[in-house]
Amino acid sequence: MNTRTNNPRDISTQPCEKVAALHNDLYATLLAAITGDTPSQSLRGLDIGCDRGEMMQMLPEQGHPCVDIDMETECVRRASQFGDTHLGTFDTLDATISDRPCDVVVSTHGLSSSLNVACNGGEQI
């Protein structure tokens, strides 16, 4: 059964549908961890290695602004549809966000890459 859609948040286009479901759970878990104790307080998020901007799309929906940074031009292009996205790396953060402190810093691409490895028995997929 083909479940692929044009929804940019639908990551079922991953090579493995099981891994895609785990990614969706990862994003939901991160969102709950970030916003769980402060539902009425606005937190500013930073996603280093934002990939396609899934967290950037989810955080503002809950009232939390987010800045994304990625070293891949295509990732920045795709994530920019959701907000403040920059081409760069951890090393370029000062120039990118020095005037805007962040309350929460995540690296969803790093976490999702680790999830890919774990789901494949420790091998890259």
Give a topology summary.
Blueprint: H1 17-35, E1 45-48, H2 54-61, E2 66-70, H3 73-79, E3 84-87, H4 93-97, E4 104-106, H5 108-119
Parallel strand pairs: 1-2, 1-4, 2-3
Helix pairs in contact: 1-2, 1-5
Task: Name some characteristics of this structure.
41% helix, alpha/beta, four-stranded parallel beta sheet, 13% strand, 5 helices, 125 residues, Rossmann fold
What does this structure look like?
With 125 residues, the chain is an alpha/beta fold. It has a single domain (17-30, 43-119), classed as Rossmann fold, CATH 3.40.50. Helices cover 41% and strands 13% of the residues. The protein has helices spanning 17-35, 54-61, 73-79, 93-97, 108-119; strands at 45-48, 66-70, 84-87, 104-106. It has a four-stranded parallel β-sheet. Strand 2 (66-70), helix 3 and strand 3 form a beta-alpha-beta unit. Helix 1 (17-35) runs parallel beside helix 2 and helix 1 (17-35) packs antiparallel against helix 5 (108-119). The longest helix has 19 residues, at 17-35. The two termini are 21 Å apart.
Strand order of the largest sheet: 3-2-1-4
Count of individual helical segments? 5
- Roughly how many Å is the radius of gyration? 15 Å
CATH homologous superfamily, by name?
Vaccinia Virus protein VP39
Using the alpha-carbon principal axes, give the shape. globular
Strand residues, percent: 5-15%
| Main structural class | alpha/beta
CATH topology: Rossmann fold
Fraction of residues in helix: 40-55%
N-C termini distance: 21 Å
Tell how many strands the DSSP assignment holds.
4
CATH class: Alpha Beta
The largest β sheet comes out as: 4 strands, parallel
Mean pLDDT: 71
Low-confidence stretches: none
Q: What is the architecture at the second tier of CATH?
A: 3-Layer(aba) Sandwich
Taken together, the total number of domains comes to 1
Q: How are helices and strands ordered from N to C?
A: HEHEHEHEH
Protein name: Methyltransferase domain protein
InterPro entries: SAM-dependent_MTases_sf (IPR029063)
Pfam families: Methyltransf_23
